[in-house]
Write a structure and sequence with these properties.
The protein is mainly α. The protein is built from three helices and no strands.
Length: about 70
Amino acid sequence: MKKEYDLSKLKSRRNPYARFLKKQITIRINNSAINYFKTMADDTGIPYQNLIDSYLTDCAQVKRKLVAQWR
């Protein structure tokens, strides 16, 4: 059976549009939140930064509002 493509012979290249999809920032996140997502990352096999991005993206899409009480 002949393969259509021999992937080992193809040259890979970076996605030229990737830089438009996400923006690198610096943000302060408390240790307990980071540990929460790192534990979830261990359970799911998804990198914790991707999990944080997915959660924040979901919040933005559904326009979730923060309910917080300051003491």
